[in-house]
Automatic annotation (TrEMBL), chain A:
Keywords: 2Fe-2S, Iron, Iron-sulfur, Metal-binding, Oxidoreductase. It comes from Chelatococcus asaccharovorans. The lineage of its organism: Bacteria, Pseudomonadati, Pseudomonadota, Alphaproteobacteria, Hyphomicrobiales. Residues 19-95 form the 2Fe-2S ferredoxin-type domain. This is Xanthine dehydrogenase YagT iron-sulfur-binding subunit. Gene3D superfamilies: 3.10.20.30, [2Fe-2S]-binding domain (1.10.150.120).
TrEMBL record, chain B:
The keyword NADP does not apply. This is Xanthine dehydrogenase molybdenum binding subunit apoprotein. It holds the Pfam family MoCoBD_2. It comes from Chelatococcus asaccharovorans. The keyword Oxidoreductase applies. SUPFAM superfamilies: CO dehydrogenase molybdoprotein N-domain-like (SSF54665), Molybdenum cofactor-binding domain (SSF56003). Keywords: Molybdenum, Oxidoreductase.
Length: 173, 754
C-alpha cells in the first residue's frame, strides 16, 4: 500500500468577519468586537477574562463549560457568543455573595468532598444548581441521570450526587 | 489531638469552587502568540515534502516550522527505565523522515490568535508516501523506518526476569493451565487537556514555562539541555492541574516547542491542545497481550509460572522508556508465593499513539492476568476461588518478602503485609457465603448476577529521595516548599496535616508551595504514589527539626532549660513556669530565622495491597453490564487523611470501571484512530458509577518510613478489570469466558453468541 497523500484538502479561506456583541454577564455589561465564530466560552475566557468556565472538549460532550443563560444551563462551547446577546449570562464567578459567602452548592461540594483536581467543578456546580432548580433532583437516580452530561475524571461522582441531594433536600425542604 | 488520621477538609477547595483556579489555559501574557500543531493524518509513511507557504501567507501567521527549522533539537530522552537499545526509538519534537502514528507532529504554526493558528494549520500541505502500518504487537517485528535503517526492527527490547526451578515446578504438576489474556488500549484522559505558556524575560533571559505538572524539576533540566540553556535559565511553574493520572506532565514534543518558540520568536507562546488532539497525541497506555502457562498442584498452589507478553508501545518510546513493561514483568506474581517464575516482556513499536504510564501501570494489566489465572485454577480443579488464593498468598510470617527480582532498578522487597487477614476481613465484610447463596438464588430466578473478587499488591513511594524546606513567616504561618507536584490529589492538605501533627499549628496556617523549580533546588514530582511517602516523610523530618530549633531559640527567651520546653499548638511552652511564646514571636525576639530542611531517602519502594469485590448484573438482551456493588479493601499502612484516601480509591475505581467496560482506543486497518472524541471514547459518568465501599485498613504499616505510610493513589484501580471479569463469568455461569478487556457490549455480544 503506497501512494502519495496530501495532508489537507482545505481550501484557502478568506479572513472571517468580526462583529460587535454586547453581553450581560453576572449583571455586568461587556461590549465586544469579536470574530463571528467566537463561542460564548471563548468570549468569556479570552475576551472578558472570566476563566472559571473550562474547555474540556469543545464539543459539548463533557460539561466543563456549563454556564447559565437566563438561569438555564447551556454548554457555552456550543453556543455562539452572538447568540447570548440580550440574555442574562451567569457564570461560576457570579455565585458568591457580595460578602464572599459561598453559594450553598459550593459549600455542599466542600462538605461532601465532591472535587479533586477541580477542573470540572465550575461546570458541575452550574449544572447542579440548574438541576435542582429544574426539579430534577428528587431522587439519586434522577440526579445521576440529569448530571450525566458533566464528566468528572477524578471520579468524585458519589460526592457530587450527595452534594446535590443535600442542597435539593434543603431547598425543597 | 493528632492531625494525622483525621478527615480534615481540603485546603485546596475554595479557589476551585469559585472559578479562581489557575489552570494551564488560564495563563496569559501580553503579546502572546498561539501555537497549533499540524499532525499527521497517516499512520505510517515517509515524508516527501511539507509545504508551508500558503499557511505562512495567511494574515496573522507569524511563523511555520517543520523539522528542518529545528534540526538542532535532539529527540526527547528517557526520564525513567532506560534500557539499552531504546535510543533509536525516541521521538523528535517534529517528525523527521517518517510519520509513525496519526497525530504525529509534522509542523507547527504560530499566529496572533488561536482561530487563525488553527486555520493556518489546515493550509499546511504534507506529501507522505504511505506504508502499510503495523498495528499488532504480537505480529513479527517489521522495520521501524525502512528507508532510514532497514535493520532497525520494531521490537525495541525484551525484558526478562526469572527465579526458581521451573523444570521441577512443571515436572511435578497436577495440572498445567495455559491462557492468553489481553488488556485493551486506554489511558488517563484528564479533563483538562495539555497546555503551556512559555515566556522569556528579555532582561534576565530566564525562560518560564507555566502549565508544568508532575515532574517540573526533571523537565526543567531536560528543556534546558535540549535548548542549550543552563538549568538556572529555565523555570517551570505549576499552577492548578486538571488531573494527571500518570500521563500529564511528562515531557512531550509540544512542551519543547513552546519553549523553543518563546526563545526564538522572542514573544510569549501559548499552546492549548483540543480534545481530539489529546486523544491521539497524549500518552496512551495498557495494551498488553499475555500468554501464560502455570504448573499447579492438586490444591491449586502455583508451583511455577511462565509468561510471555507483548506491550504495544505505539509509534515511539517516550519518556517512560521501558517502565510499563518492567513493572508488569516484576509485579505480575503479586501477592502469591509462586516459587518459580519466568517472564519475557517484548516491547514492540506499532503505528499507534505512543504509550506510557497510566495509574497502576503494569499492575492493572498483570492483576487481570494473574487473577484470571487464579479463577481458572479454581474452575479446573473444582475449588472455591478464595481457597485457591488462600493457598497461594504469601503468609504474614514470610514478611518482609524478597521476590528475588528487580523493578525500576530497585529490589522487589515486600515490606509488610497481612494478606490472609485482609482476605478474611473482606469476606466477612461482604458476608461471602450468604452473598454467594443470595446470588445463586437470583440466578435460579433468571437473573444473570455474579460476584468477582481479586487480590492485588501495589507499589508506592519510589525514591531516591525528597527534600522540603520549612520556615516560619512573620504572619505566624508556616511555609513548606517541596519539589513534589500536585495533580489534584490533595497534596497541600496531606502535607499540612503531617506538619501540623508535629508542630500543633492548625493546617489553615500552613502553606504548601509545590511545583516551582525556582523555590527549591531539587524535586522529584508526583508519580508512582510517591508524594505522601517520600515528601510526607521529608515534611515530618523538617517539622521535627523546626520544632527542636524553636525550642532551642525559645529557651533563652523564656529563661528556661530546653529539657523543660515542649511545643504545643504552635507555641513553645515551659512545663515549669507555664510561660509560652509563639513561633513568629520567637523569630521576632531572637532575630533569627526559624526554618529547617527535611531530606528523606528510600532505597526500596513499599508495597500496599488490597482486594476488589465486584457484584454485577448482565443484561443479556443488550449485552450490558451493570455494577451493582463495589468494594475496595486496602491496607495503606497509615492513613494521613481517610477522606482524601477514600476519594483517591473511589475515583480510581471509577477509572478502572471505564477501562474494564467502556474505554478503548480502537484503530481501523489503516491505523486511523476511531476514538477521537468523548462520543467514541466513553468514560464513566455519574450514571454508570456505582456506590463504592472502602474498607480502609492500617494493619501493616511500612517499616521503611517514619510515618508508616504507603501510597494510596493507585490501589483503587488496580484490580477492577480482574474483579469485574470474574463477576461476569460468575453471572453467566461460564468460567473463563472473559479473557479480554474492555468487556464492551460489542465484545460481550460476540461472546454470548459463541
Amino acid at each position: 500500500m503506497t501512494g502519495t497523500v496530501t495532508l489537507s484538502q482545505a481550501q484557502p479561506r478568506r479572513a472571517t468577519a468580526s462583529l460587535s456583541v454586547t453581553l450581560m454577564v453576572n449583571g455586568a455589561i461587556h461590549d465586544l468586537f469579536i470574530d463571528v465564530r467566537t463561542s460564548l466560552l471563548d468570549a468569556l475566557r479570552e475576551h472578558i477574562g472570566l476563566t472559571g468556565a473550562k474547555k474540556g472538549c469543545d464539543h459539548g460532550q463533557c460539561g466543563a463549560c456549563t454556564v447559565h443563560i437566563d438561569g438555564r444551563r447551556v454548554v457555552s462551547c456550543l453556543t455562539l457568543a452572538a447568540q447570548a446577546q440580550g440574555y442574562d449570562v451567569g457564570t461560576i464567578e457570579g455565585l458568591q455573595g457580595v460578602d464572599g459567602a459561598l453559594h450553598p452548592m459550593q459549600q455542599a461540594f466542600i462538605d461532601h468532598d465532591a472535587l479533586q483536581c477541580g477542573y470540572c467543578t465550575p461546570g458541575q456546580i452550574m449544572s447542579a444548581i440548574a438541576c435542582v432548580q429544574e426539579g430534577h433532583a428528587k431522587s439519586l437516580d434522577e440526579i445521576r441521570e440529569y448530571m450525566s452530561g458533566n464528566l468528572c475524571r477524578c471520579g468524585a461522582y458519589v460526592g457530587i450526587v450527595a452534594a446535590i441531594e443535600d442542597v435539593a433536600a434543603r431547598t425543597q425542604g | 489531638m493528632s492531625a494525622i488520621g483525621r478527615s480534615l477538609k481540603r485546603l485546596e477547595d475554595r479557589p476551585l469552587l469559585t472559578g479562581d483556579g489557575c489552570f494551564a489555559a488560564d495563563n496569559r501574557a501580553d503579546g502572546q502568540v498561539h501555537m497549533r500543531i499540524v499532525r499527521s493524518p497517516i499512520a505510517f509513511g515517509r515524508i516527501l515534502d511539507i509545504e508551508t507557504d500558503e499557511a505562512k501567507a495567511l494574515p496573522g501567521v507569524i511563523a511555520v516550522w517543520t523539522a528542518a527549522d529545528i534540526a538542532d533539537l535532539p529527540p526527547i530522552d528517557f526520564r525513567m527505565t532506560r534500557i539499552a537499545g531504546l535510543e533509536p526509538y525516541r521521538q523528535h519534537v517534529l517528525a523527521r523522515d517518517y510519520v509513525r502514528y496519526v497525530g504525529d507532529p509534522v509542523a507547527v504554526v504560530f499566529a496572533d490568535n488561536p482561530y487563525i493558528a488553527e486555520d493556518a494549520a489546515e493550509l499546511v500541505f504534507c506529501d507522505i508516501e504511505e506504508e502499510t502500518p503495523c498495528l499488532d504487537a504480537t505480529a513479527d517485528p517489521v522495520a521501524f523506518m525502512p528507508e532510514r535503517d532497514p535493520a532497525l526492527l520494531s521490537e525495541a527490547a525484551v525484558i526478562t526476569k526469572s527465579y526458581g526451578d521451573m523444570e521441577a515446578a512443571f515436572a511435578g504438576a497436577a495440572a498445567i493451565i495455559e491462557m492468553e489474556l489481553k488488556v485493551g488500549r486506554h489511558t488517563g484522559v484528564p479533563l483538562e487537556t495539555r497546555g503551556a505558556l512559555a515566556v522569556r524575560d528579555p532582561e534576565t533571559g530566564v525562560l518560564t514555562m507555566y502549565g508544568a505538572a508532575k515532574v517540573p524539576h526533571y523537565n526543567r533540566d531536560s528543556i534546558a539541555r535540549m535548548l542549550g540553556l543552563e538549568p538556572e535559565q529555565v523555570r517551570l511553574s505549576e499552577g492548578h492541574v486538571g488531573g494527571g493520572f500518570g500521563i500529564r506532565g511528562e515531557l512531550y514534543p509540544e512542551d519543547v516547542l513552546v519553549c523553543a518558540a518563546a526563545c526564538r520568536l522572542g514573544v510569549p507562546v501559548k499552546w492549548v491542545e483540543d480534545r481530539r488532539e489529546h486523544l491521539m497525541a497524549a500518552n496512551h497506555s495498557r495494551d498488553q497481550v499475555h500468554r501464560i502457562k502455570a504448573a499447579v498442584d492438586a490444591n491449586g498452589f502455583v508451583r511455577g509460572l511462565v509468561d510471555t507478553f507483548y506491550t504495544d508501545q505505539g509509534g515511539y518510546v517516550r519518556t517512560h522508556g521501558g517502565t510499563v513493561s518492567d513493572l508488569a514483568a516484576a509485579l505480575l506474581p503479586g501477592p502469591y508465593l509462586i516459587p518459580a517464575y519466568h517472564v519475557e516482556g517484548h516491547i514492540r513499536l506499532t503505528n499507534k499513539t505512543p504509550s506510557g504510564t497510566y495509574r497502576a501501570p503494569g499492575r492493572y494489566e498483570t492483576t487481570f492476568v494473574r487473577e484470571r489465572l487464579m479463577d481458572a485454577i479454581a474452575a479446573r480443579l473444582g475449588l472455591d476461588p478464595m481457597e485457591v488464593r488462600r493457598v497461594n498468598l504469601i503468609p504474614e510470617d514470610r514478611m518482609p518478602f524478597d521476590r528475588g527480582i528487580e523493578a525500576l532498578g530497585t529490589h522487589v522487597l515486600y515490606d509488610s503485609g497481612k494478606y490472609h487477614d485482609l482476605l478474611d476481613r473482606t469476606l466477612t465484610r461482604i458476608g461471602y457465603q450468604d452473598l454467594k447463596a443470595d446470588l445463586a438464588r437470583r440466578r435460579v430466578a433468571g437473573e444473570a448476577v455474579g460476584l468477582g473478587i481479586a487480590f492485588f499488591v501495589e507499589k508506592s513511594g519510589l525514591g531516591p529521595h525528597d527534600l522540603v524546606t520549612m520556615a516560619v513567616q512573620p504572619d505566624d504561618t508556616i511555609e513548606i516548599v517541596t519539589g513534589a507536584a500536585s495533580v489534584g490529589q490533595g497534596v497541600e492538605t496531606a502535607m499540612a496535616q503531617i506538619c501540623s501533627d508535629v508542630l500543633g499549628v492548625p493546617i489553615e496556617r500552613i502553606r504548601v508551595i509545590h511545583g516551582q523549580t525556582d523555590r527549591i533546588a531539587i524535586g522529584f514530582g508526583a508519580f508512582a504514589s510517591r508524594v505522601t511517602v517520600m515528601t510526607g516523610s521529608a515534611v515530618k523530618i523538617a517539622a521535627e527539626a523546626l520544632r527542636d530549633k524553636a525550642i532551642a531559640l525559645a529557651a533563652p527567651l523564656l529563661q528556661a532549660d530546653v529539657r523543660t520546653l515542649t511545643l504545643e499548638m504552635g507555641c513553645v511552652v515551659s512545663r515549669d513556669s507555664g510561660a509560652t511564646i509563639g513561633l513568629a514571636e520567637i523569630v521576632a525576639q531572637s532575630g533569627k530565622d526559624l526554618d529547617a530542611e527535611g531530606l528523606f531517602r528510600a532505597d526500596h519502594m513499599n508495597y500496599p495491597y488490597g482486594i476488589h469485590v465486584a457484584q454485577v448484573r448482565v443484561d443479556e438482551a443488550v449485552s450490558g453490564i451493570q455494577v451493582e456493588r463495589y468494594l475496595v479493601a486496602y491496607d495503606v499502612g497509615r492513613a494521613i487523611n481517610p477522606m482524601l484516601i477514600e476519594g483517591q480509591i473511589v475515583g480510581a475505581a471509577a477509572q478502572g470501571i471505564g477501562g474494564a467496560l467502556l474505554e478503548e482506543f480502537i484503530y481501523n486497518e489503516e491505523g486511523q484512530p476511531l476514538a477521537t472524541s468523548f462520543a467514541d471514547y466513553l468514560m464513566p459518568t455519574c450514571h454508570e458509577m456505582p456506590p463504592v465501599e472502602v474498607l480502609l485498613r492500617e494493619d501493616a504499616p511500612s517499616p521503611q518510613n517514619p510515618l508508616g505510610v504507603k501510597g494510596a493513589g493507585e490501589g483503587g484501580i488496580t484490580a477492577v478489570g480482574a474483579a469485574i471479569a470474574a463477576a461476569v463469568d460468575d453471572a453467566l455461569g461460564r468460567p473463563g469466558l472473559i479473557t479480554s478487556l474492555p468487556i464492551s457490549p460489542r465484545r460481550l455480544h460476540a461472546l454470548l453468541r459463541r
